Amino acid sequence: MDVSPPTPEAQAWRARWRRLRRFPLTMMIASLLLALGTVQLAFQIGTSVYRTVTWRQETAQVQVRVDTLQRDVQTLKDAQQAGSTVEYLRTLARCQGFVDPGELVVVASRAAGASGNICDSLRLP
Q1: For the chain, what are the domain ranges?
Q2: Can you tell me where the transmembrane regions are (predicted)?
């Protein structure tokens, strides 16, 4: 049996055949990498959507809280300004039982309690 070395054409054909035989394996690896990339992209998009929704909800809650605190600050500023006026101090003195000189104090024993009395203490924020 005579075994002669393969011709260059035969060697080239065998090399192409080896490459073609590895082609399905290469395509499977590429498909697997594509699938993994797709899963990772879907995960990243889902995470981004979740963070966006959560951030918007928290931002709305914080904005409501800020608005409430701004109203409280304005109420305190108004109370501070009103607390230094003569009319407020006179009203506060009347609530504690003081009267102006020359006034006559009349007490009705059967008088109904007045609702919305100016002397009722109000809780400030």
Answers
A1: 10-96
A2: 23-43
Burial (CB count <10 Å: 0-12, 13-18, 19+), residue 31: exposed
Tokens for 55? 């951030």
- Between 5 and 71, whose confidence is greater? 71
The single residue listed with the structure tokens 């100016």 is: 118
3-state DSSP of the chain: CCCCCCCHHHHHHHHHHHHHHHHHHHHHHHHHHHHHHHHHHHHHHHHHHHHHHHHHHHHHHHHHHHHHHHHHHHHHHHHHHHHCCHHHHHHHHHHCCCCCCCCCCCCCCCCCCCCCCCCCCCCCC
Report how far residue 100's alpha carbon sits from residue 86's, in angstroms, rounded to the nearest whole number. Answer: 14
CA–CA dist 78, 70 (Å, integer): 12
